[in-house]
């Protein structure tokens, strides 16, 4: 039994071990320099990533509080990859930061929360994992301790997530009140679609929608992404959203299957709103972090199309798109992080003529933007393709048309930035950015991911075989 | 008119019990002020009050009447409702704790058994903690409503002190609860009475000495008694949080401190020293009323001893500085209480044989 | 009307009235005190349902610790009616309308729910709220959420210390 415990909960135990190692270093008397702490943390996160691929098995523990299967293992590995790349990119900013160990502690506890949320088969475990994922992020958003914008971002994040958690918890308690159970396995049989249950479901849905910043629950996104330090923004936009998408898809497909018609219409409406409003607002942004924030809101609209397909392809396309999104968004935010750490410039006008001084970074950013827009042969194209294929299964051609139109609109602001990078001249461009081995490694991983996960079809086929739909 | 389905006999019995307990607490607190001054006198090699009545025994009455006759000053720019509510809350929470203390075993009057405990709830100790947590509000609201920066600072210091020591108090009791297996104060006393030699070997002090020490220190901090009386430091923050109060409202604050002290000593006795157990006497071998009376006498004797110890410590030790106080609470007592809990748990498991 | 029914109606009215007074009070300290009254009323409801541990822990944690923290913040920041920013009247309208709609839908959903209509709550009978049973279930069936919540507290403390410590 003890053996089972270590193997099944390997994904959670490893970050916990790293958490305590770092905690004891902090509390102990060893005076380590920032560079050595960052090196140690990155090595440990790399071991965490690699160890996740070996020796996994399916099973459950603690009743229905924890269960794991191959798809969950894959989802957790994607999140591990995300946090590793974020940590590599954070090195430039953390070099001179005073609270390096606390940064890693909070990041790891947020990751653990996401893992427990994904593996939980019980609404209580899901809620606890959600809280454990969110609260460290609210503290992390404040990590630019001198800047007021950072405190404002943290305040907005904690206030809005507290409110949405309140709604979510109200939905969970009404669900418990009407069905008498919290377990995912027992709930579908007891759902009879009465008014109170639908109301509870709407509240639950609202809680989820807040976390993946779907319109009209997106109001926190732009301000938090702009104010928080860039590594925290990349973690929030990629890893946090990815985890919530995984849980969202799995909960909707397994627990709320009886309410499938209800949530199909809700997803349709929300994805249309999200894509349209996300794109419209992104058109007007001048700050690159805000623009990327709104672009990520629009991408979520696409994912909702995929999830609404409610088939095996639905889950597979959502998981695949999150993987592609990890590489893409982290590449874009990586470049922004490097520029921001060295020069503090974040406006699109500052990025004009970037190509002249930093050709490599300009190309990386350009490939990332093409991938976000969905231009082949980058992986973003394949991601969007599979999502729309999954969504088309319900034969809702209005949805597909609106999605296609939105892709064209989004192409405008992505290409606008690419034009600024390559074709506009600038009297005082961004100076040559020096980046160390960590940033180089992160960029290589992201580019390789973007290119390979699109062209190598084994990736999508593997994910497709693991997925379940209905 | 529909007669409410209430058990009137039960209510009247409890009301009489409450009246007796409350008046006893008030009288004992009154004479505790007198005892304080006499003990201080003995330690400082002087006489103490001996003018009002024989041996100064009417001194507390004189003090009380003085406070009643003084002028009621309510500062103009303070919040009047909150100003009056502060001392009321302090007195209320001081009295409320006495509801769960078992004052003795049962009495048999006219055929009915009257239990000498106002409320034997099976979450007894948690109720005490709940009331102690609410005691913070008396200090904070009094300090705020005075509309005075010194009072506010003193009130906030007092509140943070109470909260910090409340935590260590709770932790120190967990080991005791592990041993007893119940939260009800009556059960704790009865478990202790089962020890040998008429009950004295069962007292929890022998099994939980560290827990007793931690709880004792925390109880002193909760009552704002020296050396933890920084919030009402006469020589520092003027008069602390009851600076703006006069007449009976001040009297309530000062009085509630003594009632708190009395009740804390009662709880310490109940938890660690056998409560109403008279050592070396087997209570089951005599009539019920006699056993109850002996129990009450024993209980009061133990409480008075602890009140004397409180006063002894007050007039011996100097006052703590604020940072020393916080250090002791968070970095000293909490790790000790946790260690106590672990050791007790390990010993209990070892005795059960895993 | 049995004692439990009288107590139920009294506590419900007290809770609703105090909750409204929390919102309506001009002085923030009064709001906090009314919120404490709400917590007492809810703890009374828990006691009616025989969930004794939950009732007392509600008082200790919520009314005794969290509200003290609220009072600290309000007192130290000296918040009062003058520092409150005045809001656009259209925002207030939209707030009232959306809140009112939510209330309307919730009330109608509850009234039409088949699971609740015609049933009475278990008063004084349930044994799940007693502390022995709660302890047993908490440390066996719900051991994993229990441990996760301890990690949550630890990380919240780390975050709070980073933000709050004087540089």
TrEMBL record, chain B:
GO cellular component terms, A-Z: plasma membrane
Transmembrane segments: 15-34, 81-104, 124-146, 167-185, 205-223, 258-276, 288-313, 333-350
Membrane topology, record value: Multi-pass membrane protein
Keyword DNA damage carried by entry: no
Documented EC number(s): 7.1.1.-
Signal peptide stretch: none
Domain of life of the source: Bacteria
Keyword annotations: Cell membrane, Membrane, NAD, Oxidoreductase, Quinone, Translocase, Transmembrane, Transmembrane helix, Ubiquinone
EC class (word): translocase
Compartments it resides in: Cell membrane; Membrane
Record-linked Pfam families: NADHdh
Main location: membrane
Molecular function per GO: NADH dehydrogenase activity; oxidoreductase activity, acting on NAD(P)H, quinone or similar compound as acceptor; quinone binding
Catalytic activity: a quinone + NADH + 5 H(+)(in) = a quinol + NAD(+) + 4 H(+)(out)
One BP annotation, GO: aerobic respiration
Subunit structure, interactors included: NDH-1 is composed of 14 different subunits. Subunits NuoA, H, J, K, L, M, N constitute the membrane sector of the complex.
Function: NDH-1 shuttles electrons from NADH, via FMN and iron-sulfur (Fe-S) centers, to quinones in the respiratory chain. The immediate electron acceptor for the enzyme in this species is believed to be ubiquinone. Couples the redox reaction to proton translocation (for every two electrons transferred, four hydrogen ions are translocated across the cytoplasmic membrane), and thus conserves the redox energy in a proton gradient. This subunit may bind ubiquinone.
NCBIfam families listed in its UniProt record: PRK06076.1-2
Protein family per UniProt: Belongs to the complex I subunit 1 family.
Entry protein name: NADH-quinone oxidoreductase subunit H
Name of the gene: nuoH
Automatic annotation (TrEMBL), chain C:
The protein's Enzyme Commission number: 7.1.1.-
Alphabetized GO MF terms: NADH dehydrogenase (ubiquinone) activity; quinone binding
Catalytic activity: a quinone + NADH + 5 H(+)(in) = a quinol + NAD(+) + 4 H(+)(out)
Its membrane topology: Multi-pass membrane protein
Pfam assignment, any one: Oxidored_q3
Compartments it resides in: Cell membrane
GO CC field: plasma membrane
Alphabetized UniProt keyword annotations: Cell membrane, Membrane, NAD, Quinone, Transmembrane, Transmembrane helix
TM regions (residue ranges): 6-24, 31-49, 55-77, 89-107, 142-163
Main localization of the protein described in the UniProt heading: membrane
Similarity remark: Belongs to the complex I subunit 6 family.
Function recorded in the entry: NDH-1 shuttles electrons from NADH, via FMN and iron-sulfur (Fe-S) centers, to quinones in the respiratory chain. Couples the redox reaction to proton translocation (for every two electrons transferred, four hydrogen ions are translocated across the cytoplasmic membrane), and thus conserves the redox energy in a proton gradient.
Protein name: NADH-quinone oxidoreductase subunit J
Source species: Limnovirga soli
């Amino acid at each position: 039994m003890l053996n089972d415990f270590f193997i099944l909960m390997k994904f959670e135990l490893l970050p916990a071990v790293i958490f305590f190692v770092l905690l004891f270093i902090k509390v102990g008397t060893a005076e380590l320099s920032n560079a050595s702490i960052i090196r140690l943390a990155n090595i440990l996160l790399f071991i965490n990533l690699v160890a996740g691929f070996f020796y996994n098995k399916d099973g459950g523990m603690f009743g229905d509080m924890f269960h794991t299967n191959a798809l969950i293992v894959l989802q957790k590995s994607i999140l591990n990859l995300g946090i590793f790349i974020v940590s590599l990119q954070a090195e430039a900013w953390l070099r001179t930061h005073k609270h390096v160990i606390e940064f890693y502690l909070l990041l790891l506890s947020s990751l653990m929360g996401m893992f427990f949320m994904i593996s939980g088969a019980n609404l209580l475990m899901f809620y606890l994992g959600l809280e454990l994922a969110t609260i460290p992020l609210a503290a992390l958003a404040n990590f630019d301790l001198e800047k007021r914008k950072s405190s404002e971002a943290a305040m907005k994040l904690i206030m809005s997530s507290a409110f949405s958690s309140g709604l979510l918890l109200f939905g969970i308690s009404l669900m418990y009140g009407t069905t008498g159970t919290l377990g995912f396995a027992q709930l579908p049989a007891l759902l009879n679609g009465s008014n109170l249950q639908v109301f509870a479901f709407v509240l639950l849905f609202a809680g989820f929608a807040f976390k993946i910043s779907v319109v009209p629950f997106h109001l926190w996104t732009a301000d938090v992404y702009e104010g928080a330090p860039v590594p925290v923004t990349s973690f929030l936009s990629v890893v946090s959203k990815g985890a919530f998408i995984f849980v969202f898809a799995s909960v909707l497909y397994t627990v709320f299957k009886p309410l499938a018609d209800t949530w199909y219409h809700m997803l349709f409406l929300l994805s249309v709103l999200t894509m349209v409003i996300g794109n419209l607002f992104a058109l007007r942004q001048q700050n690159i972090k805000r623009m990327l924030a709104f672009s990520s809101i629009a991408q979520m609209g696409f994912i909702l199309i995929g999830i609404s397909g409610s088939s095996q392809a639905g889950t597979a396309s959502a998981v695949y798109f999150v993987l592609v999104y990890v590489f893409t968004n982290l590449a874009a935010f990586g470049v922004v992080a490097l520029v921001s750490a060295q020069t503090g410039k974040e406006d699109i006008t500052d990025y004009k003529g970037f190509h002249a001084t930093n050709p490599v970074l300009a190309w990386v950013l350009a490939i990332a933007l093409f991938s976000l827009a969905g231009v082949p042969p980058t992986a973003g194209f394949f991601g969007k393709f599979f999502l729309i294929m999954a969504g088309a299964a319900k034969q809702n051609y209005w949805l597909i048309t609106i999605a296609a139109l939105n892709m064209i609109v989004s192409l405008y602001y992505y290409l606008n930035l690419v034009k600024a990078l390559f074709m506009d001249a600038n009297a005082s461009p961004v100076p040559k950015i020096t980046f160390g081995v960590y940033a180089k490694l992160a960029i290589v991983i992201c580019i390789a991911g973007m290119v390979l996960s699109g062209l190598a079809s084994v990736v999508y086929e593997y994910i497709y075989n693991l997925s379940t739909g209905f | 008119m529909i007669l409410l389905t209430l058990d009137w006999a039960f209510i009247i019995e409890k009301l009489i019990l409450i009246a007796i307990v409350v008046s006893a607490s008030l009288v004992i607190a009154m004479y505790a002020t007198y005892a304080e001054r006499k003990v201080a006198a003995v330690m400082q090699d002087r006489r103490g009050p001996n003018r009002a009545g024989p041996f100064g025994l009417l001194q507390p009455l004189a003090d009380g009447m003085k406070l009643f006759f003084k002028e009621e000053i309510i500062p103009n720019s303070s919040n009047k409702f909150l100003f009056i509510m502060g001392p009321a809350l302090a007195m209320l929470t001081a009295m409320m704790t006495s509801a769960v203390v078992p004052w003795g075993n049962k009495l048999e009057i006219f055929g009915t058994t009257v239990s000498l405990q106002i409320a034997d709830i099976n979450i007894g100790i948690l109720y005490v903690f709940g009331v102690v947590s609410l005691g913070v509000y008396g200090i904070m609201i009094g300090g705020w409503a005075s509309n005075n920066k010194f009072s506010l600072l003193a009130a906030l210091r007092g509140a943070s002190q109470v909260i910090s020591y409340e935590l260590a108090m709770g932790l120190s009791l967990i080991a005791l609860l592990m041993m007893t297996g119940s939260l009800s104060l009556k059960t704790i006393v009865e478990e202790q009475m089962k020890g040998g030699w008429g009950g004295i070997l069962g007292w929890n002090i022998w099994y939980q000495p560290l827990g007793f020490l931690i709880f004792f220190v925390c109880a002193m901090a909760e009552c704002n008694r020296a050396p933890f009386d920084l919030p009402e430091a006469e020589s520092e923050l003027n008069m602390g949080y009851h600076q703006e109060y006069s007449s009976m409202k001040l009297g309530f604050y000062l009085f509630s401190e003594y009632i708190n002290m009395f009740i804390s000593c009662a709880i310490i006795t109940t938890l660690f020293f056998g409560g109403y157990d008279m050592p070396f006497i087997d209570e089951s071998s005599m009539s019920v009323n006699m056993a109850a009376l002996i129990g009450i006498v024993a209980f009061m004797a133990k409480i008075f001893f602890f009140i004397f110890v409180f006063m002894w410590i007050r007039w011996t030790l100097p006052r703590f500085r604020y940072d020393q106080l916080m250090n002791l609470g968070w970095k000293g007592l909490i790790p000790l209480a946790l260690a106590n809990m672990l050791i007790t748990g390990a010993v209990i498991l070892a005795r059960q044989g895993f | 009307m049995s004692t439990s029914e009288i107590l139920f109606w009294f506590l419900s009215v007290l809770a609703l009235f105090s909750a409204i007074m929390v919102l309506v009070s001009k002085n923030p300290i009064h709001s906090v005190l009314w919120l404490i009254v709400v917590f007492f009323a809810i703890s009374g409801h828990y006691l009616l349902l025989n969930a004794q541990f939950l009732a007392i822990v509600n008082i200790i944690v919520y009314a005794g610790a969290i509200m003290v923290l609220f009072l600290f913040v309000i007192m130290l920041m000296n918040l009062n009616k003058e520092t409150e920013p005045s809001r656009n009247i259209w925002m207030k309208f939209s707030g009232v309308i959306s809140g009112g709609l939510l209330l309307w839908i919730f009330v109608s959903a509850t009234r039409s729910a088949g699971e609740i209509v015609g049933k009475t709550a278990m008063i004084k009978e349930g044994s799940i709220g007693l502390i022995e049973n709660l302890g047993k279930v908490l440390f066996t069936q719900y051991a994993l959420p229990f441990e996760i919540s301890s990690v949550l507290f630890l990380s919240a403390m780390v975050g709070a210390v980073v933000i709050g410590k004087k540089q």
